[in-house]
Amino acid sequence: MQKTSDAPALVVEAVTKTFSSGRSGAVVTAVDGLSFCAQRGEVLALLGPNGAGKTTTIDMCEGFTRPSSGRIRVLGLDPSTQPEALRARIGIMLQGGGSYSGIRVREMLELTARYNVDPLDPDWLIDLLGLRGVERTTYRRLSGGQQQRLSLALALIGRPELVFLDEPTAGMDAQSRIAVWEIIGALKRDGVTVVLTTHLMDEAEALADHVVIVDHGRVVGQGSPAELTAREEVPSVSILTDRELDLVALGRALEGRGVDTHKARPLRYRVSGGADPGIVASIAAEAQRQGVLLRELSVTHRTLEDVFLDMTGRELRS
Ligand SMILES: Nc1ncnc2c1ncn2[C@@H]1O[C@H](COP(=O)(O)OP(=O)(O)OP(=O)(O)O)[C@@H](O)[C@H]1O
Fold first, then answer.
1. Taking the model in full, what pTM does it have?
2. Cβ distance 15 to 69 under 8 Å?
3. CA of residue 245 to ligand 1 center, whole Å
4. Is the Cα dihedral 9, 11, 207, 233 positive or negative?
5. What per-residue confidence (pLDDT) applies to 162?
6. Quick one: which atom of ligand 1 is closest to the CA of 22?
7. Name one GO molecular function term (predicted).
């Protein structure tokens, strides 16, 4: 028999969730046969474009929404039928903050501590999350980033075995982001399982042991960041410039070499289909001709963002 501790911390198996939407009653399939696992003590990042089904999936794992079909187990428990037993063992960082608007930071932490058997010290959390200067401030007067940090403190106060973090650093300044990344690293070292959603590819690349890319409610790719970014058959060149590059002219300069040029995002371009010294020299020469400085040039190093855009497309989602 398998020991409980060897079982994955989170199992999502063939899960589907449909909503009937608006007055027309049209059926929206938010999650469409999703399957993935998070092992104990690992950081799992759920990535996907807007509307891909990430929040719906997390809501079902937390027991706030029931799946239409399929099976979810969190720490061996069914979130739909055992939500109280589960919530005693997990931490939830809610996107909206999860606090009463008139309550002060310290009061909210002390109140939450009282609901836990062996809570962390609110004072320690106030320092850890840089909330000392606002401990007497009411929730509604906090900045968005401070609300996020309080929300993370509330998720951690009960010493959870697993934490769900829905876009944990959304709206945070660079200092707060680094602090949160360090906290996530410390949780992992303590053996806590972390399941997070994010739109920040560098966040997923820096933190996650396992990445699950979701689109239209389905898994379109998964693996470690290293596995996902290593899967490239044809070499390519990625460049970062100090100003806009004329891509049509670059395309002309590379004509006959069997490569495609495209803009990955502002000032970041990609020449795919081949990479040899001649192609690199032509790119540099064309940039020089246009008076454009190449700030970075790398060969065949796909980032998680490249993988994500290849798997989910470049069109804007409604
Ligand atoms: N309660 C609901 N009623 C109807 N449709 C819903 C409901 N909740 C979510 N949806 C729809 O399900 C789909 C998935 O939404 P979800 O919020 O899970 O996506 P997401 O990946 O978290 O997106 P984002 O990155 O924008 O937060 C969307 O089309 C959304 O409009």
1. 0.81
2. yes
3. 37
4. positive
5. 98
6. 4
7. ATP binding
* Residue corresponding to tokens 């903050």: 97
- CA-to-CA separations, 133 to 109, 137, 175, 194, in angstroms, rounded: 15, 9, 15, 28
Q: What is the pairing mode between strands 218-223 and 210-215? A: antiparallel
Q: Environment class of residue 117 by beta-carbon count within 10 Å: exposed (0-12), middle (13-18) or buried (19+)?
A: exposed
Q: Which residue ranges have their beta carbon within 6 Å of ligand 1?
A: 19, 21, 28, 30, 48, 50-56
Q: Which amino acid is at 200?
A: L
Q: Please, are residues 156 and 149 in contact by the beta-carbon 8 Å criterion?
A: no
Low-confidence residues of the chain, pLDDT below 70?
Answer: 1-5, 23, 95-99, 231-233, 301, 314, 316-318
Q: What is the ipTM of this complex?
A: 0.96
Query: Which residue's alpha carbon is at the smallest distance from atom 31 of ligand 1?
Result: 51
Q: What's the gap in Å between 70 CA and the centre of ligand 1?
A: 18
Q: Which amino acid is at 127?
A: D
167 CA closest ligand 1 atom index: 27
28 C-alpha to ligand 1 centroid (Å):
9
Q: DSSP secondary structure string, 102-162?
A: TSBHHHHHHHHHHTSSSPPPHHHHHHHTT-GGGTTSBGGGS-HHHHHHHHHHHHHTT--SE
The atom number, within ligand 1, closest to the CA of 28 reads 5
101 vs 138: CA distance, rounded Å: 7
pLDDT digits (tens, 9 = 90+) for 206-258: 899 999 999 999 999 999 988 888 766 678 899 999 999 999 999 999 999 99
Q: Which domains does the chain have, with CATH numbers?
A: 39-64+78-229 (3.40.50.300), 232-301 (3.30.70.250)
Cβ neighbour number for residue 98 with a 10 Å cutoff: 16
